[in-house]
Amino acid sequence: MSFYILTSTIFDFELFAQRAQNDEGPGHVLYQISQRLGATIHQADPKMATMLDQALSKLVSQPSHWALARKLVSQLTREDVVYCAGEDIGLPLAILCKFKSNPPQIAMVMMAPDRFRARSLLKIFDLSKMVQLFTVTDQYKADYLKKLISIEDQQVLVIPVQVDNIFFTPGVGTLPKPRPLIASAGLEQRDYLTLAQAVQGQDIDIKICAFSPNASSKTQIKMPHPIPSNMELRYFEFSELRNLYRTADIVVVSLLKNQYSAGLTVLMEAMACHRPVIMTRTIGLSSDLIDQGLIIGVEPGNHEELRNAIHYLLANPHIAQEMAQRAYDYFLAHHTSENHVNQLSQSIRVLDPHHQALNLIPN
Fold first, then answer.
1. What is the tens place of the pLDDT at every residue in 31-44?
2. What is the Cα–Cα distance from 277 to 294, expressed in whole angstroms?
3. Predicted pLDDT at 215
4. 20 to 30 A Cα–Cα from 344, which one of 107, 157, 197, 258?
5. How many H-runs (helices) and E-runs (strands) does the chain carry?
C-alpha cells in the first residue's frame, strides 16, 4: 500500500519549507500532509505532454494533467490511495481508472463542481463509483455534489479553507501610513475598478498584491484605466504581504460576480492577521461569514455600497476592531492549517484498504 498526492502545477515544496522555517512565508499543507502520510508527491509537468494529451485536453483540463494521469494509471493498484489536489488533475485520473480492473482509491478536491465540464464528466463517466472521497470547501458545494451525482454523505467531506496561522498572525505593521490604508490581494475574479470608484476623491491609499499562483490569460479581472494615483499594484513577497495586512486599516476583497469562491485565501489571511474585512458577497463561505457579522458584505459592482462600508469602518474603529476580533477567533477555531492537515490526513488514511479491513475485525 502507498499514498500519493497529485498536483496540477509545480510547487517548490523545499522552498516553502525553508521559508516557513525562516519565518519568510507560510508552509504548504500538501507537503505537510505528505510528511504525515509518507506520501509520494507527483506534479504535472508540461514537458511530459504528448500529442495524445493535447487531444485529451479538449475534453477537460490541461495536457500536462493527462500526461501525469496516463503515467501513473498503469502503476497504481487497488492497494494505493491517491489524493488529487484539484479536479483538473483528478478528473483525468478518475476517467482513465474507469478502464482499469484494479483502480486505486481516489480522493479528489472539487473546487467548482457546478462548472459545466466538471459536472458533465462526473455524470457521463459515473465517476462517483471511481472517487471514494470528494473534498469541498463549503456546504453549498457539498450539497450540490450530493444532488448532482447522488452520493452518500460520507463520500463528501467539507474541509474549510485554511491559512498558515504560524506565519499569518496579528502584529504591528511598519509600512508608512500618512493616511488611511486599504489592503487587497489576488487577481482571479477581482474587481479593482469598483474598489477604485469607491475611494475616488477620498483621502485614502490602496495597496494591492497583484498576484495569483493560478492566474492565466483567461483570468477574469476588472481594472481601472488609468490606475489612480492613490492605488499601488505590485507583487508583494510573503513577509511584505503580512506587513501590508498588519498595517492596513481595512482589507477589501472586491470581486466580480462568481461561483468559484474566489478571494477566500486573502479573506483568511486578513482574518488571521486580525484585520477587519469588507468582501463582495458570493455563494458559499463569504456569505456565511457576512451573515454571522464576522465581515461586512457588499453586492458585486456596487461602488456606493462599498464606499459606505469603508467610511463606516474608518469612522468607527472600535466596531472595526470588535469585528476583527470575532473573525480572528472564528479563524482559529475553524480555518488554521493545523486543523486542515489533521482532518484531511485522517480522512485520506481511512481510504487505505488495510485500514478499512482492520476496522471490520471484531474486538
1. 999 999 999 999 99
2. 8
3. 65
4. 258
5. 15, 14
